Structure formats: structure tokens, C-alpha cells
Amino acid sequence: MSPAKKSLTPTNSLQDISTGRFRRALAALRRIGFGGVVNLIRQHGLRGSLEFVIRNIRHILADQIARRWDKKYGVDTAGTVPLGSLSIVGPNKEYGNECLCTSPKTFDFMMRSLPEDLRGYTFIDIGSGKSRTLLLASRYDFSRIIGVEFAKELVACSKQNIASFKSEWQKCRNIEVVEADATQFVFPTTPLVVFFYNPFSSEIFKEVLNNIEVSLSQNERDCFIMYGSSSHNAIDWAKPTILSGGMFEEMPSSKAPFFLDAVRTVRFAIFKAS
Ligand SMILES: C[S@@+](CC[C@H](N)C(=O)[O-])C[C@H]1O[C@@H](n2cnc3c(N)ncnc32)[C@H](O)[C@@H]1O
Question: What is the pTM of this model?
């Protein structure tokens, strides 16, 4: 591994709602007092309350691990950035999900379902956020890596990250970020690995999937879709949507374990164009 570097100063214009979570929780506890806590437990039940506490402890720990990862590689990929105040390209802001990056352990676990030899493949992250997955993918032997992101501030942050990231494990340095709405992205005619971490709602997903299918029928080639979601159970609608066109089949994969570096456990599936 490369020696520890100073992390990038988090981009000022990016509001990060993960920071201060612990402080906010303590302040809330002080505000409501012991009686308030008892009332909340009565309202949500012991199990519900415990799950809430565990969820929040996990979030705080995962966030700390992500910040350490950033520091190690000299980048700024941690945190949760809501889309509200960002400058968005195109008309689909209301369908987009906030920027929260995939954890390194989850990403590597998902990658185990792909073939080992990825030379010749282009890895594309649709809704690439701060570029964490692009950096993680660069440790595999993809020929090219592309992020597609519609928030200008996140694209700027990604460009800085890509320039600063140096790891002795990096195999692919052909990395770029395209500032565009996902529905407008034209897929390259190489073999593809297309990654989605629940970037938007099903309306937009269907459009992007249709673009992939049209591109594959115009230029027949290998294509894998990796779809992960950790909230809204998006995998439950994404999976039947991907299979409904008849072009993709699901590949065998194992359930992701409880990784401590992940804010939430990701449910995912991998599909191969057949
Ligand atoms: C949950 S984050 C995923 C970040 C990254 N893919 C990862 O796994 O680390 C979703 C990202 O999708 C982006 N996004 C949402 N809708 C989009 C659209 N229509 N076109 C391009 N990007 C979009 C958001 O700005 C956000 O950065």
C-alpha cells in the first residue's frame, strides 16, 4: 500500500449529513431526557428501539472507517450528500437518490461474482457520486473506467479524487467522469460491466436499461449488470425489470454479509447478457 497521505479537504460546497451524527444523537438525548427515552421505547417497542440504536451505531462506525479510508488514499469519498443544494444537469433531479458511496468490502464481495479476467471490459458506474467505486474498480484489470454523474459538484469532487488517488494496487488508470444525466449516456461498444448502487427510481432505471439493451442489440458483446441497493428494497423491482427484457440472466451470487464498513448491508444481484 502507498504511504499514508493527507486527505483532501472535503469539498466545501458539499453538505454532508453524516458528520455530527453522534453529537446530534447526544443533543437529542439531553433534550428529551430519561422520560423521553422511556416514552420512545414504549412507542417503538424494545426490539424496534434496539434496532434503531444498532443502526445508528453502525452508521457512525462505518462513517469513521470511510473517513480513515479516505485519509489513507488522499481522497474525499465519505459521507452522505443530499441532492437538494447541488447543481444538477438535466430534468431528473426529483428521481435521484442522495450520494452515499459503496463500501470497499461490499464492492469487493460483489466483484467475486464476475469473471477474473476483465481485460477488454469497460466498468461504468451509473450515478458515480464522489467516485469511490471508480477508485475501487481501478484495482481490477478493467481496460477503462467511466463514472456517469449528474451533480456538477460531485463531478468536480470526483475529478480531484481521481487525480489524487494512488494505490500500488491500482491496475487501471484510464478513469474518467462524465457529467451527464444517466439517460443521456451513450454506452461504449466494448464489453461492459455496468454498476448501479440504487442511484434513482424505477422510471429512470427503465430508460437506462433500455439504452443498454439497444446498445447491445446494435453491437453484440458481453455485458454484466451489477445492481445493489441498501434502502427502499430497490433490488425487489430492479431484478424483475432487468430479467423482463429477456436479454439478461441472473448469475449465482452469495448474500452480502454484515460488513462493518458499510452503512447498511447491500442486497445485490449480478446479471449477464445471454
Ligand atoms: C447512492 S449514490 C451511489 C454512488 C456510487 N455509485 C457508489 O456506489 O459509491 C447515487 C448517485 O447517483 C447520482 N444520480 C442520481 N440520479 C442520477 C441521474 N439521473 N443521472 C446521473 N447520476 C444520478 C446521485 O447524484 C448520486 O451521486
Answer: 0.89
Task: Please name every residue paired with 81 in a beta bridge, in sequence order, or none if there are none.
Answer: 99
Domains of the chain: 93-273 (3.40.50.150)
**Which residue ranges have their beta carbon within 6 Å of ligand 1?**
83, 92, 96-97, 99-102, 125, 127-129, 132-133, 148-151, 154, 181-182, 197-200, 204
Closest by CA to 214, choosing from 196, 190, 187, is: 187
Nearest alpha carbon to residue 145 among 180, 109, 171: 171
Expressed in angstroms and rounded, the spacing between residue 199 Cα and the centre of ligand 1 is 4
d(CA 81, CA 77): 10
Question: Going by DSSP bridges, is the β-strand pair 192-197/122-126 parallel, antiparallel, or unpaired?
Answer: parallel
Residue of 128, 179, 227 best suited for mutating to test ligand 1, as the one with most atoms within 8 Å of CB: 128
Chunked mean pLDDT (size 10), the chain, 274 residues: 47 71 75 81 81 82 93 94 95 96 96 95 98 97 98 98 90 97 98 97 98 98 96 90 97 88 91 94
